[in-house]
């Protein structure tokens, strides 16, 4: 494997602010296979999920001693599967997974499929292992959550729960771009499972015919902030290889690529590799789309396009608002990920509104953590209240600049009682083959942990 960079940049952020301090951080060789689950070896973290001894004690006392307690998990993505696997391994609950899709398709790493480098099957898995391990799987959409009755409502049934884990992902905020709702079918976003297939069709047409391909990046928070730039890079790489005549216009609502700690290596990659393929428009808002004219109205003027992948602002799905758990995002308590509104409900993954990165690795880690916390509550264990800073689930991701080279981004975070979370980024100073290989290894290991 080619050597990686000599160091990473360490970036400290408090409460999601942009206060940055660069210090060197030595790199070790990245190698991922099966991720280590949050088990009793992470008891120090899980002890701090207490929301108060009295509340936890009353919650445990309310569960009968007859049949197993019922845990419903909504969402079969990274967070939901982390919770399901943890709960099934513990064996103390009847577990139901509510997920409308018949199978799983990963959003992390799927830019390789979108750009035409790999087939969809590389990122798809069956839920068969979840069935084999004893979970009940309900292939329906949630229409409501009845907190008073502790029931999850679908089109055909009501699912009772003692504990509820919500990991429903994101929905798109369409209202900010005039004309988008009418053009939705022609402008797939591709930030939810299986939507990538429609985006891939647009990319294939563009690579064959050329023209202007617009990709947009919204203001954070949104799912996987490096993803718009990664898509642009991998499609631009295909343009170079195939000789496609045209350009990618990357319209960024932000003054710099997001998250801010990776702005420099992203811009360096854009300049050194794709100066002829990518036109970058930072600090530019898209206000309207006209599919008849195939034209975007932006704060920098009108932009014509042949194809477009508009990545919209995001929020938690409607069930979060319907259940009174938050507005744009679910309000949670850290480090427990318990809803601020209901001590029987946990919200994990990209739907929750903490400053933690909206990434697959954080979602999976928080799912495993919540699974153990629920298992402890079922067993009547009362964790000790935290007295100092508590580690939160680690964030690990990669932004590919080519099919083989990537930028590694790690986010370690902690929270102390009464304080805002503190985040520390470690970032490759430039793209490299070592991080590209590590990304592939990491993905295979995570998919095995979820569904293998």
TrEMBL record:
Residues 199-303 form the Sulfide dehydrogenase [flavocytochrome c] flavoprotein chain central domain. One of its GO terms (molecular function) is oxidoreductase activity. Pfam families: FCSD_central (PF21706), Pyr_redox_2 (PF07992). SUPFAM superfamilies: FAD/NAD(P)-binding domain. Residues 70-182 form the FAD/NAD(P)-binding domain. InterPro entries: FAD/NAD-bd_sf (IPR036188), FAD/NAD-binding_dom (IPR023753), FCSD_central (IPR049386), SQRD (IPR052541). Transmembrane segments: none annotated. It comes from the Bacteria. PANTHER family: FAD-DEPENDENT PYRIDINE NUCLEOTIDE-DISULPHIDE OXIDOREDUCTASE, PTHR43755. This is NAD(P)/FAD-dependent oxidoreductase. It comes from Hydrogenophaga aromaticivorans.
């Amino acid at each position: 494997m080619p050597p990686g960079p000599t160091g990473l940049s360490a970036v400290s952020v408090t409460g999601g602010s942009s206060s940055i301090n660069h210090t060197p951080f030595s790199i070790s060789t990245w190698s991922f296979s099966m991720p280590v689950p949050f088990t009793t070896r992470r008891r120090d973290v899980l002890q701090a999920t207490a929301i108060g001894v009295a509340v936890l004690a009353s919650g445990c006392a309310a569960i009968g001693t007859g049949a197993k307690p019922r845990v419903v998990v909504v969402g079969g993505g990274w967070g939901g599967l982390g919770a399901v696997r943890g709960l099934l391994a513990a064996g103390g609950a009847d577990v139901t997974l509510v997920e409308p899709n018949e199978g799983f398709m990963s959003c992390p790493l799927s830019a390789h499929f979108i750009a035409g480098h790999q087939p969809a099957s590389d990122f798809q898995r069956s839920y068969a292992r979840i069935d084999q391990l004893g979970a009940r799987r309900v292939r329906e959409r949630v229409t409501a959550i009845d907190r008073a009755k502790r029931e999850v409502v679908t089109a055909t049934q009501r699912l009772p729960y003692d504990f509820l884990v919500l990991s429903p992902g994101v929905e798109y905020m369409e209202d900010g771009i005039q004309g988008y709702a009418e053009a939705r079918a022609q402008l797939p976003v591709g930030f939810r499972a299986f939507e990538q297939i429609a985006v891939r069709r647009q990319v294939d047409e563009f690579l064959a015919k050329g023209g202007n391909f617009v990709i947009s990046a919204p203001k954070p928070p949104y799912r996987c902030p490096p993803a718009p730039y990664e898509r642009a890079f991998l499609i631009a790489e295909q343009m170079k290889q195939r000789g496609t005549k045209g350009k990618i216009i990357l319209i960024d609502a932000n003054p710099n690529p997001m998250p801010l700690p990776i702005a420099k290596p992203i811009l360096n990659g854009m300049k050194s590799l794709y100066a002829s393929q990518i036109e970058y428009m930072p600090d530019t808002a898209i206000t309207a789309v006209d599919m008849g004219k195939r034209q975007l109205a932006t704060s920098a003027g009108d932009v014509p396009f042949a194809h477009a992948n508009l990545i919209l602002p995001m929020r938690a799905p409607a069930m979060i608002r319907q259940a009174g758990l938050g507005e744009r995002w679910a309000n949670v308590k850290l480090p427990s990920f318990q809803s601020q509104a209901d001590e029987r409900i946990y919200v994990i993954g990209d739907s929750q509104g903490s400053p933690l990165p909206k990434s697959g690795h954080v979602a999976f880690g928080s799912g495993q953590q919540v699974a153990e916390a629920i298992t402890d509550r079922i067993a009547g264990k009362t964790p000790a209240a935290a007295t100092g800073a508590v580690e939160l689930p680690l964030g690990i991701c990669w932004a590919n600049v080519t099919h083989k080279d990537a930028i590694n981004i790690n986010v370690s975070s902690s929270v102390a009682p009464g304080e805002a979370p503190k985040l520390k980024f470690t970032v490759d100073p430039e793209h490299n083959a070592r991080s590209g290989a590590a990304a592939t290894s990491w993905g295979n290991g995570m998919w095995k942990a979820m569904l293998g």
